[in-house]
Structures are given as C-alpha cells and as structure tokens.
Sequence to fold (570 residues):
Amino acid sequence: MLEFLGSLDVILQDGFMYAIIAMGYYISYTILDFPDLTVEGTVLSGGVAFGLLVTAGVNPWLAMIAAFLVGFIFGAITGILHVKLKIRPLLCGILVSTALISVNLITTVVGMGGNLAGDGALSTIDVGRSVPTLIRTFPATLLPTDFFGINPRKIISFFIIAVIFKIILDVYLKTKNGLLLRAAGNNPQFVTMLAKNEGRSKILGLAIGNGYAAVSGALIAQSRGNINQGMGIGMIVIGLASLIIGLSVFGRVRFMKPTTMVILGSIIYQACLGFATFLGVPSAYNKIIMAVLFTLALVLSGKLKTKRGKINA
Amino acid sequence: MLELKNIKKYFNAGTVDQVTLFDNFDFTVNSGEFISVIGSNGSGKTTLLNLICGSIAPDAGNIIFEGKDITLLDEYRRAKFIGRVYQDPKMGTCPDLTIIENMALADNKGKNFGLSPAVNKKRIEYYKELTSQCGMGLENRMNVKVGALSGGQRQALALVIAQMTDIKLLILDEHTAALDPKTSENIMKLTDKMIREKGITTLMVTHNLRFAVEYGSRLIMMHEGKCITDISGKEKEKLSIDDLLGKFYEISIEKGN
Ligand SMILES: Nc1ncnc2c1ncn2[C@@H]1O[C@H](COP(=O)(O)OP(=O)(O)O)[C@@H](O)[C@H]1O
Ligand SMILES: [Mg+2]
Fold:
C-alpha cells in the first residue's frame, strides 16, 4: 500500500494535467452533446505548438496561450464542418484529427529545421532539462523540487494551472456568451428565437473545448519531457472517462461546480490506473484497462440517469 | 404589415411523393390584428407559420414585412421582431437553466451576448413581476430549473419569454393544445391579456373552436393550402361555434365523405 501512496504524486500530477482535456469535454460532450474526436489531434497540436515555441525561447506562459489558440482554431474547423456542411459529429472529428496527423508531423519536422523529404528523425521535440518550460521558470521556481522524496513543484504548478482553467470556465459559463452556449446545447431552437445563430455558439464551444485539450497537450509535453507524434493516442478515452466519472460520482453533491467534479473525476481515473500498475499489471495492458474503466463509467452514469428519469416521471 | 405574395411550397420536390401545399398563396396581416387560424390537420397551418418565421423557405413568391422583402432572411435574424410559442412546452425554454437564467437570456434578445455577467441581479425583481402575472406561483421558484416545472408552467413562462423584448409579431402554434382543459383556459386568458396590453400583432393557430371564436379580431380557416374563410370586424364578433362547425361540414361534403 505504501508503494501505491508513493505513486500519489504522479496520480495527482497526471490528474490535474488530464483534467483540462476533461473540462474541454465538459463543453463539447456535456453541454453541446457532441462526442468530439478532434481532441486526439489537438492534444498533440498543443504539445507541438508549445514545444516549438519554448525551444525557440518564447516565454512558456505565452507558449501555453499559443497552444490554446491552435487548439481553438482546429476545434472551430470541426465545428464549421458540422454546422456549415452538416457533417455528423463523429465524422467531423475523424476528418479533422486525420488531417492533423499530417499537420502535426509537418509542423514538427519543419519547426525542428528538418526536411520533409528526409527521414523521420526529427519528428520528436525535446523539452527536457535544458528547455525553460513552465516548471523551470518563474514563478514555479519558487517551489522546492524535493519534499520528503516527492517533487511538489510539478504537482503544485499543474494544480494551479488546472484551477486557473477551471475558474476561467466557471466565470465564462456565467457570462451572457457562456449562458448562450449552454442554451445552444440545451435547446438550439431557443437560441434561434433569441435572434442568435445557434451554429456559431456550437462552433465556439468546440473551439474552446479543443483549446483546453491543446493546453493539456502542453502540460503533457512538459511532464514527459518530449513531444512525439503518438502523444494524442488514448486522449479521447482519458478525457471522456474522467468527465463521466467526475459527473456521475459527484453529480449529487450540492453546490459543487461541474468543473470541480471533473478535476476530481480525473484524479480518480488516474488513481484507478495507478492502482492497476501497483497490482503488478504490466503497462502493455494500460489501454485495455482504460477502455474497461471507461465502459464502467458509462454504465454507472447511465444507471444514475435512468434512476433520476424514473423519479422525475 | 406582413404580406405573403404568390407563395409556392412543395414537399419532396422532384420525387413521386411530391406534395404541392401552397400554390400561389396570398395572405396579408394588418398591424394590430389578432388572427385565429383554424383548419383540419394537414391543411398547412404550421407550414404557414414556418414560412413567416423563416424556419423553411418558399419555393417561389415573396414575404414582405413592413415594406422589406424578408423572403431570404435567416430565421434567427427574423426572430429579432418575431416571438414564437410552440405546441410543445419544451420548445420555448431551456430545461437545464433556471427561470432566472431563461429570462435573463430573453431579456438580452437582440443585444450583444458578450462577456458581461449573464444575470443582472437588479433585474430579478422585474422578472418576478412578469412571472407573477401568470398566477402560477412561478415568482417563488425563480431558481428552479425549468425542466422541473409542469407543462402549463413552462408554457406560461414561454409566453412571457416570447414577448419580453419588443417584438412586432407573435406566432402561436397550438400553444394550448398539449395542456389540460383548465390550464389551457388559463394560458389562453393570459395570452389575450398580454396581447391586449402590448397591442402585439398576433397569429394564433388553434384547434379549439371556442378560443377561435371568443378571442381575436380576425379568423381564417385553412384547407388544403388555401385560406377558405376570412372573417373580421363585426362579422367576427357575431360568429358562433356552430357557424364554424357548418364550415367544416361543407368541406367534408365537397370531399365526398
Ligand atoms: N417536412 C415535410 N415533408 C413532407 N411533407 C410535409 C412536411 N411538412 C409538412 N408537410 C405536408 O404539408 C401538409 C401541411 O402540413 P402542416 O403545415 O404541418 O399542417 P397543419 O399544421 O395544418 O396540420 C401536410 O399534408 C404534410 O403532409
Ligand atoms: Mg400543425
């Protein structure tokens, strides 16, 4: 058990890091009811944008904002495909994330000064020790790197970033624009009758959701020390499972904000994965465990929903 | 104020199932009128409202509103001057938002939805005042999600919301049909009161012949995409339900059933 507690720092750090994808899904999946597959591409895009900018000497906070904007734009493209060209949600995500495989690779290779015709040696960006990332620059440098054997700097930095993005989302959802977004997911016809284009709200929501995914990508890059082209794989499941676990476990807690539930859900999900590792399950099984956990979360939340439905009826 | 000219509307155009609903349909709404629209199922009442609101486009013809051609204007742009209440009480409000949040959105209709706080606390008293006219106790449940309200309560709220901002035209599509008789009666009275107070030009589709006779300043009857009866003024005041039943009877004789 002590060993499991020993991995608590990684669980928390990963929990905060992936919670930002899950918050993005709170907008696209929960509010807009849009199962957005673009995320697999935009997580990596965010990582690539962040990695290239910090290695070029750009301030990491600015690089993170740039990552958000990159995700925002690609998310908007998914939204435009759906709203303007009437393509189904799942297909829109597949189309954009497929194109992003090339976009991310080309950006990486060109950004690293490589040659597209040459070998693939430059498809990885290193953000290791020599690169001034968020955790190696002010104000994170005020935090110690060793505290009874764990490194609180990463945990606290990632915690603060997750909380910042949580608060931004909470505040946004209370603005006129945010409330309109919630209305667009709830009853699109209502938005039309408010003399607003509901399609635009949807596009904006998907853009924000992918902006969040890209920010998470920037954190993942720093956590791993490099950005490789496979980084986005599995992110859809991590994001959605964290979201659904959070909302179904804490859904009945009064006065708890959904964004808080999502962060807690993300930590629970990482703890489950950590526990499997602790039990000695080889890491090759990781994705199977992820899929199983996700299925459990879906079943659990479905049960809760039908129960509520019956009470209401 | 509103004119439909030479409107043609087909469904399933170019297929064997082609239905020609409107063929050179003309219709004029004058400012200040409260028009009841009756007619059997499939006679084109909802389609008429959809054409006016821009939910669907005509295949030919023009729609003129206050001198401007709005035939190609998007539905959401027309909504600036049109309020609409549907038969389904779920359509007119957002179930997951509270009464206050629904009303705050409606209060901002036609304005910019920016990054200022959605709910202005100073307006809440005003929202309560508006909902209290419904006489359904909504004013005591302002923080309740609308999805938890009864159909009648939701419809009353939808009605308040539809004309919170200054609209020029109110469109009601069988808005009392999904309610029990007593609630239906209450909502109809409320509708009439609101329309009188604000003097909004109104088009109301109803299956309730008594409502059509008792309320409104003009009555039209639709049949197979045509307006076969158009009664207003003194004649409308004298109209009885029996007269209308007679009209329905005439139609079915013509059709030979
Ligand atoms: N989307 C549609 N596709 C095919 N036919 C339609 C469609 N909408 C309406 N119609 C046809 O137009 C006619 C009028 O429908 P509607 O305007 O809904 O009638 P009402 O509201 O008077 O009952 C009906 O006969 C119906 O078959
Ligand atoms: Mg109808």
